[in-house]
Amino acid sequence: MTFHAAVFIATSLDGYIARPDGSIDWLTERGEQAGDTGYDEFMASIDTVVMGRNTFEKVLTFGFWPYEGKHVEVLSTTLDPDADERVIVHRTVDGLVETLADRGAQRIYADGGAVIQTFLRAGLLNELTITTAPVLIGSGLPLFGALDNDVTLVHNATRTLKAGFVQSDYTVVR
Predict the structure, then answer these.
(1) Would you say residue 148 has pLDDT above 90?
(2) Per the database record, which ranges form the Bacterial bifunctional deaminase-reductase C-terminal domain (predicted)?
(3) What integer pLDDT is reported at residue 1 of this predicted model?
(4) Phi/psi of residue 62, each to 5°?
(5) How far apart are the first and last CA of the chain?
(6) How far, in Å, CA of 42 to CA of 58, rounded?
(7) What is residue 126's three-state secondary structure?
(8) 153-160/166-172 β-pairing
(9) Torsion, Cα of 174, 51, 64, 48 (10° steps)
(10) Are strands 71-75 and 88-90 parallel, antiparallel or unpaired?
(11) CA-CA-CA-CA torsion for 106, 107, 111, 115, nearest 10 degrees?
């Protein structure tokens, strides 16, 4: 594999990335209180964003396109390949990886629960940055799902942000 894949995501303290309906109001209502999370610096180092259909559809509700100048790949078995000229839709992980390799992608931002879980199971992730919001939402879409094997992580750092947010960085051991 020629690229480096990273996750930069927020969860509730109980490990959810969204409510059952996909809402992230619990984060958007509090997120700015955390101060500088390093997201802008992270995004400046990324050349490609990979997300699933649900994350793509959530991004479309933002009212602006946050990925100008980035290649955006959507991993989905159901999204119309012509849904949006700003993205390339892939049906399989193998097809996605082939495209990334052919294009010479360097740093990949893997975003969205299903994509993160798929990348973990396929051994494609290199690092995780997880920002934990000081809220329990009780149910929703978990960041991590079932795995075939343990995924060993090396803890690199944990930072206390403002308003009770905590951010931890991990390297995935292969």
Answers:
(1) no
(2) 7-162
(3) 63
(4) -70, -20
(5) 12
(6) 20
(7) coil
(8) antiparallel
(9) 50
(10) parallel
(11) 40
Q: How far apart are CA 9 and CA 58, in angstroms?
A: 14
Please give the model's pTM, rounded to 2 decimal places: 0.94
Task: Enter the tokens of residue 132.
Answer: 């934990």
Dig out the tokens for 63 from the structure: 């009212």
**Residue that the structure tokens 């929703």 belong to:** 140
Q: How far apart are CA 4 and CA 59, in angstroms?
A: 23
The tokens for 56 are 């793509």
Task: Quote the tokens at residue 72.
Answer: 């955006």
Helix (H, G, I), strand (E, B), or coil: what is residue 11?
strand
Give the C-alpha separation, 166 to 158, whole Å.
7
pLDDT at residue number 112? 93
CA dist 82 and 163 (Å) reads 42
